[in-house]
Description:
InterPro entries: SspI (IPR017525). This protein is mainly α. It has 4 helices and no strands. It has helices at about 5-15, 20-30, 35-50, 55-69. The termini are far apart.
Amino acid sequence: MDFQIREAISANMKGNNPSEIRAVVEDAIQRGEEHLLPGLGVFFEKWWKNTDDTKKDAVLNELATAFAQ
């Protein structure tokens, strides 16, 4: 992933409220377009860097369950 993608997404999302961020995530998922996946990865990376290990473990368990289905 190119660092310009990270910077562009961070700049575009700065100041957005939770409902605006949710709309962006849901729109990207609904479209299902491959080129939107790096953007969702930037969201996940930002979250990962700014959360504690307890929340990380909970998400990892949920992901493991989701991928097991």
